[in-house]
Amino acid sequence: MSGLTAFLFVLVVGLIAFFAGAARARALDDGKIKAHSRPQYHGAWAMLLAVLPALGFLIVWSFGSGAYLNKQIDERVIAQTSEKSAVSDTLVRSLADGIKRLDAPANTNPPATMSELMPLLAGKGVTLAPDTQDYMIPIALDANSMASRFGWLGGLGALALAVLGALYGIRQVAVRERARHKVERVMLGTLFSASTIAILTTVGIVLSMLFQTIAFFSEVSPWSFFFGTVWDPRFAAAGSGGSQGQFGLIPLLAGTLYIALVALLVAVPVGLMSAVYMAEYASRNVRSIVKPALELLAGIPTIVYGIFALVTLGPWLRDISAVLAGGSPFIQAQSILTAGLVMGVMLIPVVSSLSDDIITAVPQAMRDGSLGLGATRSETIRRVILPAALPGIVGAILLTASRAIGETMIVVLAAGVAANLTANPFEAMTTITVKIVNQLTGDLEFNSPQTLVAFALGITLFFVTLVMNIAALAIVRKYREQYE
Amino acid sequence: MNVMNEQKIEEAVKARMTAGTNEVIKMRGDKVTVHYGEKQALFDVDILIRENQVTALIGPSGCGKSTFLRSLNRMNDTIAGCRVGGKITLDNEDIYDRAIDVVELRARVGMVFQKPNPFPKSIYENVAYGPRIHGLTRSKADLDEVVEKSLQKAALWNEVKDRLHDAGTGLSGGQQQRLCIARAIAVSPEVILMDEPCSALDPIATARVEELIDELKQNYTIVIVTHSMQQAARVSQRTAMFHLGYLVEEGPTEKMFTNPDEKRTQDYITGRFG
């Protein structure tokens, strides 16, 4: 029995429990004592008792049995070859999956050699890695039968649990039973676990980068990474010694912050002003056109902005500068300015849309109070509305800044991939994200510092944004002007 | 500011003496109509607002009294689709005239709202807001003085003098409303409009604000919208009764509450409708 079938069966049992529980509650209600909960709450509680433990069991069982199966395969492979290969159990598993897809009787009794088996598998559209060995076929067969046995055991176990839970839940139905509170508690638990998913994922992401980062720092000293001013990883051929590159973070970090700064200098004033216009001045007709249009702008993929920067804005700026300087251009076609401008335009809708909502949320009473004292509209906005909306606006700007720092495609196309360290906005520079992509693409040994540096960069970026967010929270808390 | 007020009082006293009566007309409504889009909310309201008196506007909900109040300092301008017809004058100047600057008008005709709405700033900054935007003071010392005087006039000074830089929103509801009154006073208006200023307050805070209104009428002309008959009787000298967008009757409060000309007024005051 597959996991999905078991899941469906459990749901069916849950539904039956729901109706049975509700019906029992209705039958018990003789009108003498006021029932504590309405029948559907009794039904829901019975259903939850039936479904939740069974599903939990199913999940634990499938992970546990999968791990056990892998271990068995591993042991068999080692027994056969007396050497441990990191990939052989993966090969066996894909072979097992392939055999399962063959027609009977080959799916239980396949040919004994790979040379015979391969064409059969190819006929089913299954291609296997070339170093799949003959001895793996019996192991794969055993794995299949074991997996199916585990599937049945797990499915039946889950079903049994579901039935037991349902019976228990239905038995529990009583006039003064507090089913409503119990259902409420389950709701609370569900909401809580939903909110922890994000946190746990963050922890997982950090951990997944942490080990590679440690491996990187065992080969390159943290000092030369964090304070190095030269980025030159040298894509040397594997094994050719003495080609230790230089992994200086400073040029990349500077480029990241520089481009983000230029982008924010464009996006924040323009976005904020357009938000003020839309929230405070625009008539309903104008607003109903401009706001969706701006939000549409936010939906354009960043690569499209990058193309615009590459083929239009960059060359245009270069030509303008050539005319201004009378000959040789002082703005390069790929420059910080180009990337920052285009990224800024990309971010305008983000700033304006978020700020618009925040400004609109400031109570009308604030505006009335200020206008009633003889303030003009713009005085009201500058002195009352924006200060009241400030915490939200800072939050919006930070969200925007994180997007600017994480942006890759625009930078690749508009500012290039050259890791310079310069203060001149007319030259090319690059960012951390671009280099992460650079280091991870291509045929590289995965354990060389050239690749591992990507993880160190990633974790650095993570902490940079983390520190920014914490700083922002502190600022917001300090300058908060509460209007309730 | 203080000097200005004293001058004003003197002038008013003089005007009374020369007129041989103790009443000076501060504002006048002449066939005032208000439309919200297609819907007419106010029909031909003729009314006189007397200087240094409290005029109460009463009537059931939706009768147009708040609408009328808001047209006295053109707060209705901020509502889309709102049109005001007829003529409203302040010291014989048409306030809807093109030559009138609405910002200046609102500095002369201040407003206190139903729900206390202090700005999310410190107590000091709340009161200093008006003087700052209108440039009424020359120095920090001047501004300090205006803030102190305004808070004193609003009977709030003693309660907040040690925490002027705490948030205004941290005060109790009644204190917040007196802060809003102080904020309105700080720009030295001539008329103060109050839109149900006590409806969000408890009885003790209400009593404080009512006391305050009584004191303020020496220096200001006050127009107050209220749903409480007792409040109207307690604080006002003149009462105007609105119903369905019409001004039913206007007269001295005492007469309105004891011997009104109109049956509708009688019925409303005695609680037979509304």
UniProtKB/TrEMBL annotation, chain A:
Which InterPro entries does the entry link to? MetI-like (IPR000515), MetI-like_sf (IPR035906), Phosphate_PstC (IPR011864), PstC_N (IPR022182)
Q: Where in the cell is it found?
A: Cell inner membrane; Cell membrane
Q: Provide the transmembrane region boundaries.
A: 6-23, 44-64, 150-170, 191-217, 249-272, 293-317, 329-351, 384-405, 452-476
Q: Does the keyword Metal-binding apply?
A: no
The residue ranges of the ABC transmembrane type-1 domain are 253-472
Q: Which Gene3D superfamilies match?
A: MetI-like (1.10.3720.10)
Gene Ontology molecular function terms on file: phosphate transmembrane transporter activity
Kindly state a single biological-process term from the GO annotations of this entry: phosphate ion transport
What cellular-component terms does GO give this entry? plasma membrane
Q: Which UniProt keywords apply?
A: Cell inner membrane, Cell membrane, Membrane, Phosphate transport, Transmembrane, Transmembrane helix, Transport
Q: Which SUPFAM superfamilies match?
A: MetI-like
Instruction: Give membrane topology per the record.
Output: Multi-pass membrane protein
**Function per UniProt:** Part of the binding-protein-dependent transport system for phosphate; probably responsible for the translocation of the substrate across the membrane.
Q: Which family does it belong to?
A: Belongs to the binding-protein-dependent transport system permease family. CysTW subfamily.
The name of this protein is Phosphate transport system permease protein
User: Which organism encodes this protein?
Assistant: Mesorhizobium denitrificans
Recorded name of the encoding gene: pstC
TrEMBL record, chain B:
Biological classification of the source: Bacteria, Pseudomonadati, Pseudomonadota, Alphaproteobacteria, Hyphomicrobiales
Q: What's this protein's name?
A: Phosphate ABC transporter ATP-binding protein
Keyword annotations for this protein, in alphabetical order, are: ATP-binding, Nucleotide-binding, Phosphate transport, Transport
| Gene Ontology MF: a single term | ATP binding
Q: Which GO terms describe its cellular component?
A: membrane
**Family named by the database record:** Belongs to the ABC transporter superfamily.
The segment(s) forming the ABC transporter domain are 27-269
Q: Which InterPro entries match?
A: AAA+_ATPase, ABC_transporter-like_ATP-bd, ABC_transporter-like_CS, P-loop_NTPase, PstB-like
The lineage's top-level taxon is Bacteria
Name one process (GO BP) from the record. phosphate ion transmembrane transport
